[in-house]
């Protein structure tokens, strides 16, 4: 009587979006610092702060053993600050490119604010991270967000000086004007983040008008020699 050949098991499919895993419970054999940041980024959102993420939750999302986390970060706070830094760099690049693309027809202010508001609905959630952690995060997170805001201000100040020369319209206290613009935009973003998306166009228009008022005031101060204070 013929014996049946042993049945071969088919390899289980790899979950889409994650590399092939090996070892216990489908864990990945190796992981990079960037992989852990991406895993944390995938967990945060409009209603989820970095400060609420646990090490085990991040490890599970990254498909690694919890102890593997410590090869790249001391703790979740260090990872969170790295994520805030990444969010700041990404947003500065997006908004900076929008400012430089602006033409006579589309003002620098409007182009910048449109790029900013678009990030409220972006998949990466970079803007959500800065808005949430700047208001509700730990003191270390708030300091990291404050550092990113100062980077925004420094880059905007350079652009304000450049545009003042191009347009032959001097601006008083460009560093202070850049700070006023940055703080106002982020405050309006924080107000918009919890509102339905249909409210965003109205907030955008209000923000554009307020920023033009800041710029017009700074230009008038320069033209008339008005001293601050």
Task: Explain what you see.
With 229 residues, this protein is an all-alpha fold. It has a single domain (27-224), classed as Tetracycline Repressor, domain 2 (Orthogonal Bundle), CATH 1.10.357. The chain has helices at residues 33-43, 55-62, 76-101, 108-118, 126-136, 139-166, 174-192, 200-224. Helix 1 crosses helix 3 (76-101). The chain is elongated, with a radius of gyration of 24 Å. Mean pLDDT is 83; it is low at 1-24.
Measured as a percent range, the helix fraction is 55-70%
- Specify Rg, calculated over alpha carbons: 24 Å
Strand content: under 5%
The backbone outline, from C-alpha atoms, is elongated
Strand segment count:
0
What is the name of the CATH class? Mainly Alpha
For the record, the count of structural domains works out to 1
How do the helices and strands follow one another from N- to C-terminus? HHHHHHHH
CATH fold-level topology: Tetracycline Repressor, domain 2
Spell out the CATH superfamily.
Tetracycline Repressor, domain 2
Main sheet, how many strands, which sense, barrel?
A: none
Pairing-aware structural class of the strands and helices? mainly alpha
Unreliably modeled segments: 1-24
Whole-Å distance between the termini?
103 Å
CATH architecture: Orthogonal Bundle
Helical stretch tally: 8
Instruction: Return the average pLDDT rounded to an integer.
Output: 83
């Amino acid at each position: 009587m013929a014996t049946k050949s042993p049945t071969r098991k088919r390899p289980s499919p790899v979950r889409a979006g994650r590399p092939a895993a090996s070892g216990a419970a489908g864990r990945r054999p190796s992981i990079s610092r960037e992989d852990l940041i991406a895993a944390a980024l995938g967990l945060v959102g409009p209603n989820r702060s970095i400060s609420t993420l646990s090490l085990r939750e991040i490890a599970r999302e990254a498909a690694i053993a919890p102890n593997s986390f410590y090869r790249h970060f001391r703790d979740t706070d260090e990872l969170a600050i790295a994520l805030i830094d990444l969010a700041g760099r990404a947003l500065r690049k997006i908004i900076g490119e929008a400012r430089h693309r602006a033409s006579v027809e589309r003002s620098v202010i409007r182009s910048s604010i449109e790029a900013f508001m678009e990030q409220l609905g972006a998949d990466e959630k970079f803007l959500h991270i800065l808005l949430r952690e700047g208001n509700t995060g730990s003191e270390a997170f708030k300091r990291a967000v404050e550092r990113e805001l100062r980077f925004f201000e420094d880059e905007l100040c350079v652009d304000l000086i450049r545009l003042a020369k191009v347009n032959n319209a001097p601006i008083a206290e460009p560093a202070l004007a850049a700070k006023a613009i940055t703080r106002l935009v982020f405050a309006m973003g924080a107000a918009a983040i919890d509102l339905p998306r249909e409210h965003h166009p109205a907030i955008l228009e209000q923000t554009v008008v307020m920023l033009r008022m800041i710029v017009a005031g700074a230009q008038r101060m320069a033209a008339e020699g008005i001293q601050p204070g």
